[in-house]
Specification:
Layout (H helix, E strand, L loop, with lengths): L1 H9 L10 E4 L2 E5 L3 H20 L3 H9 L7 H14 L3 H22 L5 H9 L3 H12 L3 H30 L1
Antiparallel strand pairs: 1-2
Helix pairs in contact: 2-4, 3-4, 3-5, 6-8, 7-8
Amino acid sequence: MLAHLVTLVGNPTRKRPESATAYTGGRCAQPRKNATDTNVIRYNMENQFTNVMSQRTDAELLKIVNEHRKDYQPDAVEAAEKELRNRNLNTQQIQEASKENVIKHKIDSEKANTKLGGGWKTLAFIFPGIILIIFSGIFKADGYERKARELTNWTLYGFGFYIGFVILISILNRL
C-alpha cells in the first residue's frame, strides 16, 4: 500500500484510484469516505493510542483504566488495558502502582487546598489588575485551585474598594 501511495505522489499525471483522494482538474478534492478509509483512520488512531499508552507508567495506566475511564476515548482506554495486559504485572506491582496513585492524589489535593499568602492578598487588594488575574490563571494551571480562587476574589475586592471610593468621593463633592 505504501509503495502504491509513493507511486501516486511520484507521478502526478497518473490517475488516482477512487479509494485515494479524488483527482479533479489538477488539484485534489476532499478524500472520499468509504469503509477502507474509516478502517485506516481507526487503525492509525489505535496505533497512536498504543504508542502513547506504552510510554505511560503502570500507575498512570491503572488510573486511566480504573478512575478516569470516562475522560478518555474508548480506543484509548482499550489501548491502556492492552498495554497493562502486555506488561504482565504481578499483584505486588499493581499494589505499588495503586499506592503511588494514592500518594499522588493526596499531594494533588493538598496542593489544590493551599491558601493564598497575606502578601498576595495585600498586593491584589491595593493593586488590582489584569496581571493578578493572569497570575490566578497560572496558579490554577499549576493545580493551586484555592490560591487561584482567593487571588481572583481579593483582586475583585480591590476593584470594588476603588470603585466604592470613587463613588463616595463623587457623592461628597456634590454636597
